[in-house]
Specification:
It is built from twelve helices and nine strands. By secondary structure, the chain is of the alpha/beta class. α2 (48-64) packs antiparallel against α9 and α9 crosses α10. The chain is globular and about 45 Å long. It is found in: Nucleus.
Length: 290
């Protein structure tokens, strides 16, 4: 029966290895982990970006092992085929501790799936964050959701709204990243045969437990690496996962929520004004405007 057919994540055919240290054999990786934990109690500012990238590289490898059942037909892992661009984002903007972590759910088809940057709408990444470069291809590509990187002509509205809000409030990226960072809970995009997005919230069966276990651990590590004090979930799913991670790991972190900027969300007109009002209610607006 067709329902028994499975789709497995695979190593992407055109990933970019810009740091050979992170591309060691599994034996070397396992040996090194025992001697050198990713998260240390005394995180130095000089290696925050490298710790985060190492954690994300390991997470991508763990998620690659998951076998997803139908209706999942395609799995895009931009942390592999767009790792060079993602590395630019992390190294440029995440080399200090962050008070506030904005947490998204997973990559969108015209955002992070194209650029490797969370909510990474093309023009915002290229023109405001000043990041651009070659992007590879996923191992198995959906014909209507092709990855063309910075040649992509589609705009992801969610990313345009989110980064556009902080462009308006902060004026410069440096002002935003002084206190905050944007990160995705799950770094893979899932689609059915027709290319329709399947969110992690829609996944059933044992694979979601494996995904949650890997992503929960990675989020807890990210919180410790960045010494996060406040997580703002972008939408209800991200808020819920953050709450569970904070509670289970007993982390002294406050979890808040902003409405998701997707145009498909209910009552989502004037998103920018609503999000600004929320930041004001949280007492955080001055972090981006002062």
């Amino acid at each position: 029966m067709s329902k028994s057919r499975k789709t497995k994540t695979r190593r992407d055919s055109d990933s970019v290895d810009i740091n050979p240290k992170r591309m060691k054999s599994e034996d070397e990786d396992n040996s090194e982990k025992k001697e050198n934990s990713i998260v240390t109690s005394d995180t130095s500012l000089e290696n925050i970006s490298e710790q985060l990238l190492s954690m994300e590289h390991n997470l991508a490898a763990e998620l690659r092992k998951i076998t997803f059942r139908l209706p999942v037909e395609y799995v895009y892992s931009p942390l592999e085929y767009a790792f060079n661009i993602h590395t630019m984002y992390v190294q440029k903007y995440c080399n200090t501790v962050k008070k506030i972590l904005f947490l998204g759910m997973n990559p969108g088809p015209w955002g992070m799936s194209q650029t490797g940057v969370p909510f990474g709408e093309i023009s915002m990444v290229r023109d405001w964050l000043k990041i651009c470069g070659h992007v590879g291809k996923p191992a198995k590509e959906q014909p209507n959701r092709k990855v063309t990187g910075f040649q992509c002509t589609r705009s992801e509205i969610s990313g345009k709204r989110l980064w556009g809000l902080f462009q308006e409030l902060c004026k410069s990226p440096e002002k935003f990243f002084e206190h905050a960072y944007i990160h995705n809970y799950c770094p893979i995009a899932l689609m059915n045969k027709k290319g329709c997005n399947i969110t992690p919230a829609e996944i059933k069966g044992p694979e979601i437990q494996i995904l949650h276990s890997a992503c929960d651990k990675a989020l807890a590590d990210a919180i410790k690496i960045l010494k996060v004090e406040i997580i703002i979930g972008i939408g209800g799913y991200a808020e819920k996962r953050a709450q569970l991670v904070v509670q289970s790991s007993k982390l002294p972190v406050k979890v808040l929520c902003l409405p998701h900027p997707s145009p498909r969300a209910v009552n989502n007109k004037n998103w920018s004004e609503k999000a600004t009002q929320k930041l004001s209610e949280f007492g955080l607006l001055e972090c981006f405007t002062a």
